[in-house]
């Protein structure tokens, strides 16, 4: 699995390389590398695959993706051995075998790949062990509450989610700034005062405003009125289609929350929303959740996409929370970066870890 680097014979694991292992790009595989780097830094995932290795010997080929799980597990283990670099060849080959869409040398969407990978590992783990670290770590529940406008009766329905997929609104909510912690507010002020933003606000009305992830959340969770012919609500009390009010709240917050921004539109030629969205280091979801546990999160990893839709590049940033350091993973190149590098990134996917303190 370590491929040519190990065979070269002169590259040995070294604890100084922990957090600093790069992954070789095997022909447009930066989207896989970025996803794997982020997942390998998620504490429950790292702990699980390093300590309770799943035994996949003598497994029959009965429709489950043992090979992909096996290669993923190896990759996580090796990423923490302290090699300066690894070649994820076998893992990449398994992904290509299982999902023909990921054929070699094509540019792919990292978010779709992340879902495919997590779904595949989740179902295989469940099949082998009866439980899954993937669901235990990433899955949350959203409660959808509908109130019939005719009889006022309320019905609720729960939906589970693996990630929150948020559209980027064009308008800023007056509440979003107040939701931020002081440090994120000061980064916001810095971004507002940047020369680029000054120029923008000079030429465009409202151009000086900056969208934050709180604006995306407010937009996503705003109450809806179902009053159009095609979205009327069937009320079982009234036994007819009626207008209704609908509200969504997070009922169970996951240990690790994955948020992705809907930057890509695939219709026809496809296009990309390049709007800068500020990703706070601390996230408080109390406005959007009725979970009775902690509703506070800290940012632990982000995936950045830059460039155009079909020929961009993915880079991961992950935080060593113990030493309070951020690292950038650009395929084989790994370097320590500052918090402002994270603030300035064009974030596509963000990983937040639940915390008691904020
Ligand atoms: Zn009704």
From TrEMBL:
CDD domains given for it?
A: Peptidase_C19R (cd02674)
Q: Which Pfam families match?
A: UCH (PF00443)
UniProt GO molecular function: cysteine-type deubiquitinase activity
**One Gene Ontology term from the biological process aspect of the record:** protein deubiquitination
InterPro entries xref list:
Papain-like_cys_pep_sf, Peptidase_C19_UCH, Ub_carboxyl-term_hydrolase, USP, USP_CS
Identify the residues that the record assigns to the USP domain, covering every copy. Answer: 21-355
Could you tell me which SUPFAM superfamilies the record lists for this protein?
Answer: Cysteine proteinases
PANTHER family given for it?
UBIQUITIN CARBOXYL-TERMINAL HYDROLASE (PTHR21646)
This protein is called what?
USP domain-containing protein
Say which species the protein is native to.
Answer: Blepharisma stoltei
